[in-house]
Amino acid sequence: MFPIRDHNPSGRTPFVTYALIVINVVVFISNWHLHQSPRALYAFYADFALVPAFISQGEAFSGFFTSMFLHGGLAHLAGNMLFLFIFGDNIEDELGHVKYLAFYLACGFCAGLAHYLAAPFSRVPTVGASGAIAGVMGGYLLLYPRAKIDILIILIVIFRILPVPAFIVLFVWLGMQIFGGFTNTADGGGVAYWAHAGGFLAGIVLIVPIWLRRGGPRFWARTEGHPPHPEATYPVSQTRIPKVPRR
Length: 247
Prior knowledge:
A three-stranded antiparallel β-sheet has the order 1-2-3. The chain is built from ten helices and three strands.
């Protein structure tokens, strides 16, 4: 079960969101050959990933930013870029291009900081844009809690697209990160759960001034949590499976 699109069209072309997607893809392709050599890949990550132990030694602070443009695999990259594509355009539309870029980088830094504080002596390299994207999702939750998100549900041979309010999708996602953070060792590798939670919280905090400028609770009351513009509609494809009438 994962989101594939929202019903919240943006009013301007999200050039920064598109540029971030392109940069992440280009960077991934440029270092793809390193994945054939674990030693070369780890040396590359030592220079550009976020390694908490290095930060504790007073070095490699650039990893807070360079790590958010690296990915550990094709599925990692594809999942992150899908989430950025779904949620990024609306936050960019709200903030403007330059402020949105600053917001994105700030959320990524806060996510990295949360991960560092959770495991300051870990030598496991951390890579991925998911912390910054989590901040975008946090801002989206505050501004458009009832925007419709289409969820693709796959149950063995059953494929179903179900529209769900954004707050359900995002709260479930956040709950999974917090649960994962408490049930997994902070330096054992895998998913940087606290980075996700930290980025999400940073996104909410940084978008609060915009929300208050819109009216705060009055904005929610006026829009009922929906985007303050008409929702996008998508054509519904009819199934080719014939229906068997009941006798």
